[in-house]
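To whoever picks this up:

The parser on our side crashed when reading a file containing two proteins. I've narrowed it down to the boundary between the first structure block and the second sequence. Both blocks are reproduced below exactly, byte for byte. First block:
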Amino acid sequence: MKLIFFDEAKSDRQYPHYHIGAVCIDEEHLASVEAKVNAIAVACFGTAELSAVTELHAAEIYHRKRNFKSWSDFGKRVEMLVTIAKVLSDEEVRLIDIQINCKLLRASQAPEEIAFMFLCERANDLMKAKKSLGLLIGDRESDRLAEQFATTLSGYRAVGTDFAYGRDIHNLVDSVHFTHSHLSRFLQLADVYTWLLQFRNRNSGSKNDHHLALLKALQQKAINLSPAKYKEWPKP
């Protein structure tokens, strides 16, 4: 059994792209991966205890918000994001990258629904290739969205996904499970991965010193954020 933790990065007027990033970890590696993230939390907060004040949230690290408000040293914040990116680069962690180009959608199409469909397809493909089953786990930001995704997956498992070349979903089990991100180090990993996906795409041509500092730091050999499965749609 593999657990697939996912998070989203919403689009806006300045950046019309919707992302879902997911981290997939086999049950036998959960303890070792969690220990690595807990060690980062201890370095940041002096404790591995899960709570809202010990959450590792990428946007807050980079922009010096909430739990990282006192971290005035930008270089230290970049180093922290790089440390988490190294955990994401571990062989035990497989990545899934979904990007929806919102400007190319029809008015009736919802980016979050399409992105979730592609997540289910790509996660199922990965599980099938590994001859394994997978369980989806997401960040409970909205009860409405949680119920919607759970109902949607149930339909996909029953009759396949929606598009003309839709796929059967047989390697994802049960419903989509949700919990708050501050209660899961794995969801915090998914948060950082998803944030880095949009950051790299959004700032690829930037001349901003802070943008360039993080982009350069992510190029070191110890970091490999290449996904095991990905989908960009529609293609530009």
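<<boundary where parser fails>>
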Amino acid sequence: MMEEIKQMLINDKINVINMERVKIPSGQKIVYFIDTDTENLVLKMVDVTPQILIDEPEHEIDEDLQQEINLNSYRIIEEIKMSKHCPNFPQIKKSENKDYIKYIQVNNRIYLIYIEERFLGETLEKLLLDTKKEFTISEILNFLIQMTKHIEIMSSNGYVHRDIKPNNIIVNNSTYYIIDGGICKDTNSNINLTVTGSEIGTKRYLAPEQEKIIKNYNWTFQTDLYPLGIIATEMLNVKARGFITSNEDIRDIQIVKELWLGKDNSNVSQKVFKNIIVTILNKIKALRFNNIDECMQQLENLKKEVI
């Protein structure tokens, strides 16, 4: 398959210097890291093959079958469009002034292919797997400030991410990037990129309001603030991480308090826990700060107190 993709890229005048397949948990999506002489890119392939082509590989792709392929591609296309509205998401590569989105047929399967810019660095999840790595209060405040700014950008563009977790955060020299807008909610319209009936988000980091899938929900930036409290606790104390604490434990504020203050009981740490962590982990969405500027101001003030 890699040779077919390379040839496609060559035909499209993309000078591939290095191409590496990336292991991901999804069985449907295939991902390659691509380095050119000028760019670091990620190529994503999603299988959109209609069932009839799986059963009958020689079946002609007629108009009806093409419509089915387009329908299978709808969610991915909407996800791609979303990246344009959120400047902090990886942007789609342009080719001849058009988004690089196309179909390729390999081994009787049809894939929707698109290429995005790639943020260099490691996922925060990978860093948290290191049992020797714990973050200071200063580093955690830096994380919270940057992530809150990301949430502010998404919110100002009318989106709620709904799946902020360590695996969707890239770290490079203490700079944090957010990726994977695949289940974002467009709060300015009825566009919802979540497949009907699918789980919305990742259980360990779900805001309480996400646990109930209801028709007329009103998720806001407050929904995206919630997982930051859990992630910050995991960063501070290795004992808070997923290979030690259960999903239920880490969502219990009393357990979070023990993990947080048990690791760092300094004056600034107590303030961060009381003024920020307790607030954004409130089970009631409306009590997680009235607006994002209020949250940001408190974070900036606390940052000044760190010696």
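After patching the parser it read the second block fine. The chain has a mean pLDDT of 87. Residues 24 and 94 are 25 Å apart (CA to CA).
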